[in-house]
Amino acid sequence: MQKSISKAAITWRLILSGFIVISLISCEDTNTVGGGVVEPVDIIIDTLYVNDFEQQQLDIFSGGLSNLPMGKYSDPLFGDFEITGYIKPVLLTTPTNPLNDSTDLKLLLTTNLDRAYGDTTEAVDFSIYKVTQRWRENEVLATDNITYDSGNLLGSFTYVDQDSIIIDISESYLLEYAEYVNNDDDDRDSLYNFEFFGLAIVPDAPSSQIIFPSIIDSKFLTIKETDTVSVAFRDHAFTVNRANESVFNDRIYLNNFLESFYRINFEDLANGIDPKNILKADLYLYEDRLQMGNSLPVNHTRPEIEFLDLRYANSQNLRYDLQLVQPDFVAFRDTLDNSFKFDITQHINSYLFGEPSEKEFYLTLGVNGGILNASTFYDSSATTELRPKIILTIASE
Amino acid sequence: MTKKVILSSVLLFFLSIGSVKAQNDEGQSGTVYSLYGSGMPLLNNTAQEKGMGILGVSFTDNQSVGLTNPAQWGSGIYTKIAANFDFTNYSIKDSLSSGNNSLLKIGSFQAIFPILKNKLGMSVALYPETRSSYNVNSVRTFNVGGRTNEFLSNRTGTGGVTKFEVGFGLRLTNNISLGYAPSYAFLTESENETIVFADNTIASNNVNTRINGTAVSHRFGLSIGKTNFLKADDYIRIGGAITLPTNFDSKRKSETIKQVGLQSVVVEVGNTGTANVGLPLKMSGGVSYFFNSKFNASTEFQLEKWDEAEYGFSASEENAFTNRYIYGTGFQYHPYRSRSTKFFSKFKYSAGISYDSGHLEINNNKIETLWFSAGLGLVSPDLRTNSSFDLSFQYGLRGTISNSLVKENIFAINLSVNLTELMFLRRKLN
């Protein structure tokens, strides 16, 4: 009997072990069975139309940008732009072999052909004059007026769809520059700062293109016999004269020289949001590509915009912040529908779960290194598909 | 030996508490139908009763402990302690796909102390009344901004109603016993809803919803037994039990993590609030007939009035409730009582079949289950105790794949560990 009991005990131990082993090795697979019983989380899309765009106007600091726009173009959509460039060479260290009348001074301008604005088939003439007033590149505004001596032509060139051009600068200007370079007195730098004002590159009429030479690839050259020295720009800036500016009554007009930008506020919209589990809140703006394209004559081109900026309006120095501080939100073009989409989820959540520290935004086109950008976007008068809107992606509750 | 029993009971009790807590933590999942209400209502019958396909309302023996009928706790002179362990595998299928879920849990813990030998007994028990345990993935699409986006939704639910019960069974006469078992019931449900998007510019989202509530529950039992009913060595027992409706004042809270400004904060979303959650009136009855010491059979039923149960957090879930009927019948054979020395005579054997109409009607389909059961038991060879192990095997067919529902082929193994010992009694002979 004792033997049989032992057998039974062993059997039970085996059964218990089997129970534990089965429990441990049993595993469940990842499957999608049961979706008809346990309904998945529902995703709800809600659309809030943004109506209140308050137009603002300012201008930019035009000095020190990575490109130097110059030229003249009458844009059928945006009006007339006349842009004058200003450059001043760095003061070279005093050379052992002084600059003199046997030295040539030239200006090399390198442009990017993809960045032309206007009629790319026509020649554009520019004249170069001596600037007659002191200017500093980090203070120049695009709307400033910098005087130059238009009665004394120091050089000229014609630009026709080329990626670089070398321009002869007059000997008189070279000799004037040489005085400061050859001077080894202690005050040579301050004399140069206060007395030598650089050159103005002025588009001649008629002219129908704005070009954008790259600063990093453009320079002065001093050439003496076989010795060529590159002379970078100490200062560079530009000024813009505008005429025939368009007024857009049913479009949002953005100009990256801050001629037009907008102040917006989503507080009323956000406070009306009821379901709170917002997974995404995107602000959509739709570019009016039709009007932009149709307004350009054949062979005319306009720099494309690639992104929009949105910044909290908390600035003490608005011009500086709009131009030089990184935006809080950036929207890139969706080529499918030419929309620009800002992800403002965090901002909307700050209304739903607290009080945002900042409520106002500035909508701008980025300065883009001096490349002139302008565009129009559909406003609240457009069809519902094209209106500015916030699309909420919400998890059902 | 008494010390061993006490130590074992303490161990089993804490294992049971761990099990209740683990309802919220376990990674495995059970039936998808446990989404509804506070979960699938459970039968807390022992492995032996499961093996017979019955509820246990009319069945009792000296080797095991039964939770189903409080009236049975007054009989006997042994202190009995039991814990039940369940492993269930669900082979699931709907009209689109198939898969497997599995669930391992400690079911219930119960200790019965004979206050007055063969007269008055006290039961202390901790057991789950309902259980939510599901883990369902779904792939869906939605359109936004002219684009179609795909996302994976996962809903994982755990929890249910657990009762801590202290009850009494009183043997009024040799044939009639009564029982009363009040309990403190606590409802704890937790659901995680997770969404992951194919478009990684949309952050994934997880919402945790918790429902908590407490209530006091009452149940009563009646048991009538008669020896020499039809013949000299037979015995018949008729049992009935009733559990009164239980209502929880429950609170729901849904939270998720949101990036607000520069900080990630836990925020409340959804419908936080209170509502009534109810468990219905439950009535059961049955008859067990012991032909002789080696063979017995039982037939039992149970009615749960889910039509009247509330689930205030979801009208659609409440509307799916329908009255539940359970019928079970089975038999048991005890060759070990013959004192045979043969190996297969050391066990008790049982088998049965039961039908459960289910408490849900979804998309015009009742979620019915048909169970086939078999059991095996081993009684301790030590004649001074009646301790036993019981193992049952169940195979169930539940649901349908029509109307977007799920068909489940269920395989369950249940183990009851019954420790039975004379306690607080000095033996005259050893």
Could you describe the 3D structure shown?
Chain A has seven helices and 24 strands. By secondary structure, chain A is of the alpha+beta class. In chain A, strands 1-24-17-21-20-19-22-16-2 form a nine-stranded antiparallel β-sheet. In chain A, strands 3, 4, 6, 7, 8, 10, 11, 14 and 18 form a nine-stranded antiparallel β-sheet that branches. Chain B has helices spanning 2-22, 47-52, 315-319, and strands at 40-41, 79-93, 98-116, 120-128, 130-144, 147-171, 176-197, 205-227, 235-243, 246-260, 263-268, 273-279, 282-290, 295-304, 324-333, 347-356, 361-362, 365-366, 369-379, 388-399, 407-421. In chain B, the strands form two sheets. Chain B has a 14-stranded antiparallel β-barrel with strand order 2-3-4-6-7-8-9-13-14-15-16-19-20-21. Chain B has a two-stranded antiparallel sheet with strand order 17-18. Chain B has 430 residues and is mostly beta strands. Chain B starts with a helix and ends in a 9-residue tail after the last strand. Chain B is built from three helices and 21 strands. Chain B is elongated and about 85 Å long. Chains A and B meet through helix 1, strand 17, strand 21, helix 7 and strand 24 of A and strand 2, strand 3, strand 5, strand 6 and strand 7 of B.
Note the topology.
The complex is a heterodimer of chains A (397) and B (430).
Chain A: H1 2-25, E1 43-49, E2 53-56, E3 70-75, E4 79-89, E5 103-110, E6 117-119, E7 124-131, E8 148-159, E9 164-169, H2 171-182, H3 188-195, E10 199-203, E11 209-211, E12 219-224, E13 227-231, E14 233-243, E15 251-255, E16 261-265, H4 267-271, E17 278-286, H5 289-294, E18 300-301, E19 307-312, H6 318-324, E20 329-334, E21 339-343, H7 345-352, E22 360-365, E23 374-378, E24 389-395
Antiparallel strand pairs in A: 1-24, 2-16, 3-4, 3-11, 4-10, 4-14, 5-9, 5-12, 6-11, 6-18, 7-8, 7-10, 12-13, 15-23, 16-22, 17-21, 17-24, 19-20, 19-22, 20-21
Chain B: H1 2-22, E1 40-41, H2 47-52, E2 79-93, E3 98-116, E4 120-128, E5 130-144, E6 147-171, E7 176-197, E8 205-227, E9 235-243, E10 246-260, E11 263-268, E12 273-279, E13 282-290, E14 295-304, H3 315-319, E15 324-333, E16 347-356, E17 361-362, E18 365-366, E19 369-379, E20 388-399, E21 407-421
Antiparallel strand pairs in B: 1-5, 2-3, 2-21, 3-4, 4-6, 5-6, 6-7, 7-8, 8-9, 8-10, 9-13, 10-11, 10-12, 13-14, 14-15, 15-16, 16-19, 17-18, 19-20, 20-21
